[in-house]
Amino acid sequence: MKYGQLLWLVQAIALSSAFDVEDAAKQYSESDVRGHLEKFQSIAEKGGQPNNNRFMGSKPHEQTLDYIESQLESWGYKAKRESIDTFYCKSNTVSVHIDNKEIKDVSPFWYSPTGTVEGELAIVEGNGVKESDFGSLVKDKIAIFQRGGDSNSVFGSRIDHAQKAGAKGVLIWNNRPGPLRLPGGTLITLSNPDALGHKYVPTAGLTQDADKDLVERIKTGKVRAKIVSKCDDKEVKTENIIAETKKGDGKNALLIGAHTDSVREGPGINDNGSGVAAVLALAKFFKDFKDQKNKVRFAFWTGEEEGLIGAYKYVRALGTTDLEEIKLYFNVDTLGSPNGINTVVTTSGEETNSAGKYQREFYKSQNLANDEQDTSPAIDAWAFQQFGVRVVAIETGFNGEKSEEEAAKFGGTAKEPYDANYHKAGDTIKNVNMDQLAVSVKAVIYTAAKWSESFDGL
């Protein structure tokens, strides 16, 4: 056999042995994934928490972590539990009076501090997204602006801007019918690594029609407001769980993460029991995967719903060398939305971003469409992005409604939520679209396997 023929044969064998989409499909076990979800559901139902939640630091959340640890150790991993001392707002109440008239349907904001402020109202243009929106107009006044603008500018960042401009307090009125995201928003500034422990000014949300002629009254004369806010802080101990493959180049690491906590309003089986189930399936897969060249780490984050607490704790503790060794962070969150879409999330939100290439490759091979989105402060990937780590994420839609274009592209129902039970008591195992979840988990396995083989092209 000639050298050229031998080289061709070697290359052909190498290509044929490389992990492909069909391999990923074979690795998916619906019984395993469903079993994880059933366990999380059982923990939630027996936990005695309001709305069957698995909130950070609660007994059901601790039991969730115990289960994750036991699964990892059963596959031969050494699971490291990383302790975190933090706090949360156990309850928030707020009342608002404008010109001595009490306003109805006011929404509290978690982490709005205890306090009473009174002052003249000052309208802020531009939805408070930029510091320049505030100028000197709000100094010693209560700033008021409408919800909207850049989706990556979270409430906490806008309140920071108001506070820096000298505002005593902040009112945000809704840009759509109904209360402002009951039970309010959160003022944890996800884009700020020092957010926890940060003190804000008293803040409240108003309905769209709370005071119909308010804007005109402010423009034509002085209008005074009073905000009374109370936050009952509670200290809590919680944990991340970290595990890694025994083999693989530690200087070229793929870090894969999913958050383990739910909101207070429900058990969080889609958000994010589905993501945790996917990462557990991935850990089981990697215990026998022979083509791996790069180190793979699995992270199970606490406190995502309270401001990416676990992810920020982890990334802030890393030195420069440790950060450089993480070639890619892969976030796995909310994979079984009932009216879902296939989403590739990258820093730029563009198809040209190479971090999402294997997800796209998987969807294309299955004749499935995908959308491109950029990262937001609502997912753990944001914490890593702030520290210069390349990130990619997979999700299937959570907060928002499916557009006409998306319905044509993915099927499902336009003008209906991706997940009608998002952050609600109905986020149970019955809420999870198992067909959508199967597609997502296979995409996760394929993506992780390919990056574990090589970071070429990243």
From TrEMBL:
<dbReference type="InterPro" id="IPR007484">
    <property type="entry name" value="Peptidase_M28"/>
</dbReference>
<dbReference type="InterPro" id="IPR046450">
    <property type="entry name" value="PA_dom_sf"/>
</dbReference>
<feature type="signal peptide">
    <location>
        <begin position="1"/>
        <end position="18"/>
    </location>
</feature>
<keyword id="KW-0645">Protease</keyword>
<feature type="domain" description="Peptidase M28">
    <location>
        <begin position="240"/>
        <end position="446"/>
    </location>
</feature>
<dbReference type="InterPro" id="IPR045175">
    <property type="entry name" value="M28_fam"/>
</dbReference>
<keyword id="KW-0732">Signal</keyword>
<comment type="similarity">
    <text>Belongs to the peptidase M28 family. M28B subfamily.</text>
</comment>
<feature type="domain" description="PA">
    <location>
        <begin position="117"/>
        <end position="210"/>
    </location>
</feature>
<keyword id="KW-0862">Zinc</keyword>
<keyword id="KW-0378">Hydrolase</keyword>
<protein>
    <recommendedName>
        <fullName>Peptide hydrolase</fullName>
        <ecNumber>3.4.-.-</ecNumber>
    </recommendedName>
</protein>
<dbReference type="GO" id="GO:0006508">
    <property type="term" value="P:proteolysis"/>
</dbReference>
<dbReference type="Pfam" id="PF02225">
    <property type="entry name" value="PA"/>
</dbReference>
<keyword id="KW-0479">Metal-binding</keyword>
<dbReference type="InterPro" id="IPR003137">
    <property type="entry name" value="PA_domain"/>
</dbReference>
<dbReference type="Pfam" id="PF04389">
    <property type="entry name" value="Peptidase_M28"/>
</dbReference>
<dbReference type="GO" id="GO:0046872">
    <property type="term" value="F:metal ion binding"/>
</dbReference>
<dbReference type="GO" id="GO:0008235">
    <property type="term" value="F:metalloexopeptidase activity"/>
</dbReference>
